[in-house]
């Protein structure tokens, strides 16, 4: 006598057939997503299931999850049931967010992990916050001790949580005793860590609306953690896998967010060695109709270089915010260095981009020339507008012509300090400009994104010199986008 039909399996089969009538979901897309999630069936076996054959619960669950990932909230009527559900706590997402905001107002940063977990559990999800370290190599638990379990750092390379950080997209882990989402934690456009979100009921893992709630929560957590970093040491202490030098502490306090974005412009930068940087610093200012970028490299080491770089940055910002153009900004830097560091030598590059026209004007002060990439190829070096390094004013500097170039939407700008090209391996071979250009072109062609390109490039430079740089190496990448042509 044949076994009676499984009502859950039949419901899944009917819902999958219905879902495949949606224009956003084809059988091929369903199978590819199913395979990416760990499914081992072939396309024929998936078709067989739709035709009436039976499948194990795990394969049906993976198929359901694959379909649900392809469907949006507007397609809620097509979502495939994944099995019986326990009723979730009757609290709205808005209530959870309000609870988090109310709870952290009088809490120290060190309590954020426990508070976020309490809020998550009210929605049936365990939460652990992980923050990226300064070197963008590890994800470090913000609350390492929980329920008598010590949590260690996770690698950003070659791990699922690392993929969430690198891609800026939620990753789902279906294996192991506690299936979970790894959700990127954002502060604005900058990914600062990941949220380990593990539903108490494993069936909730396939609820796209619940996942969206925690993606929103992760953005709020990112903002709150960054804000808390200004009032205590817990956030910085978590991110420092190695103690910072005095000069590095000074420089890190002066940096803008490592990554930022508007509708038409993106920028991302990073310094190495993160714990011992001395004289490198970068800055930017994003406005609706223009962008300013700058990179500086103060000669020398340790605190003396850090102090020179700090004074240079302060003079630059003061002049820029007062409305001074590039020549006025350079003159302000010269004046400050001459008055307080008479033996100073600071190289740098200043750029001003008009977002309405694409007109780029720039000034180079003894610094490596930035490069422009278009369609994943370096099309020019910004070698014009040259003058002596800051701190070495020469008569006539103020009258030197600025360099000019016209950018097109989609172009990349790459600024760097000399420590990038001059990094040497054990045989004495430089990292070099050609290696830098090759790396940037591959990254642009692969559409890695600015932040991930910066992260991988700094890792490549560190690896080239066996993890120990002889000089600071700084990268600042930027991209101009036409918001009329690109929605991202």
Mean pLDDT: 85
Spatial order of the strands forming the largest sheet: 5-2-1-8-7-6
Structural class: alpha+beta
Biggest sheet features: 6 strands, antiparallel
**Helix content range of the residues, please?**
25-40%
How many H/I helical runs? 15
The total domain count is: 3
Low-confidence stretches: 72-79
CATH architecture assignment of the largest domain: 4-Layer Sandwich
List its salient traits.
single chain; 488 residues; alpha+beta; Beta-Lactamase; Phosphatase 2c, domain 1; 3 domains; six-stranded antiparallel beta sheet; 15 helices; 20 strands; 37% helix; elongated
Mind explaining what this structure looks like?
The protein folds into 3 domains: 7-78; 93-235, Beta-Lactamase; 243-480, 4-Layer Sandwich (Phosphatase 2c, domain 1). Strand 3 and strand 4 form a beta hairpin. The protein contains 15 helices and 20 strands. Residues 72-79 have low confidence and may be disordered. Strands 5-2-1-8-7-6 form a 6-stranded antiparallel sheet, with helices on both faces. With 488 residues, the chain is an alpha+beta fold.
């Amino acid at each position: 006598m044949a076994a009676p039909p499984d009502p859950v399996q039949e419901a899944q089969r009917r819902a999958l057939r219905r879902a495949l009538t949606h224009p956003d979901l084809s059988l091929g897309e369903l199978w590819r997503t199913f395979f990416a999630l760990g499914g081992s069936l072939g396309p024929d076996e998936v078709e067989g299931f739709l035709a009436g054959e039976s499948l194990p619960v795990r394969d049906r669950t993976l198929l359901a999850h694959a379909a649900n990932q392809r469907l949006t909230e507007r397609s809620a009527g097509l979502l495939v049931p994944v099995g019986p559900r326990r009723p979730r706590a009757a609290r709205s997402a808005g209530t959870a967010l309000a609870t988090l905001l109310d709870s952290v107002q009088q809490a120290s940063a060190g309590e954020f992990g426990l508070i976020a977990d309490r809020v998550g559990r009210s929605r049936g999800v365990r939460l652990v916050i992980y923050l990226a370290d300064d070197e963008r190599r590890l994800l470090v638990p913000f609350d390492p001790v929980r329920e008598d379990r010590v949590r260690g750092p996770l690698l950003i390379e070659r791990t699922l949580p690392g993929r969430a950080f690198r891609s800026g997209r939620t990753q789902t882990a279906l294996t192991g005793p506690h299936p979970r989402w790894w959700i990127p934690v954002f502060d604005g456009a900058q990914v600062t860590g990941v949220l380990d979100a593990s539903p108490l009921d494993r069936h909730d893992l396939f609820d796209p609306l619940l996942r969206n709630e925690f993606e929103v929560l992760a953005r709020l957590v990112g903002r709150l953690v960054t804000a808390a970093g200004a009032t205590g040491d817990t956030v910085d202490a978590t991110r420092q896998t190695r103690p910072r030098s005095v000069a590095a502490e000074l420089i890190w306090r002066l940096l803008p967010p490592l990554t930022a974005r508007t509708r038409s412009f993106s920028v991302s930068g990073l310094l190495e060695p993160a714990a011992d940087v001395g004289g490198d610093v970068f800055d930017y200012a994003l406005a609706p109709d223009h962008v300013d970028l700058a990179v500086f490299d103060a000669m020398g080491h340790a605190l003396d270089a850090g102090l020179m770089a700090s004074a240079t940055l302060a003079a630059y910002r003061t002049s820029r915010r007062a409305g001074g153009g590039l020549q006025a900004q350079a003159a302000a830097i010269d004046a400050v260095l001459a008055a307080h560091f008479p033996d100073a030598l600071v190289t740098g590059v200043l750029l001003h981009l008009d977002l309405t026209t694409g007109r780029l004007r720039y000034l180079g002060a003894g610094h490596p020339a930035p490069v422009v990439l278009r369609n994943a190829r370096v099309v020019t070096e910004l070698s014009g507008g040259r003058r002596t390094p800051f701190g070495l004013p020469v008569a006539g500097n103020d009258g030197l012509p600025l360099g000019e170039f016209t950018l097109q939407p989609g172009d990349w700008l790459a600024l760097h300090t000399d420590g990038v090209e001059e990094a040497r391996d054990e045989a004495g071979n430089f990292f070099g400009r050609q290696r830098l250009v090759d790396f940037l072109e591959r990254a642009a062609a692969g559409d890695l994104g600015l932040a991930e390109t910066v992260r991988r490039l700094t890792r490549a430079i560190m690896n080239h010199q066996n993890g120990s740089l002889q000089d600071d190496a700084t990268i600042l990448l930027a991209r101009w986008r036409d918001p009329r042509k690109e929605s991202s």
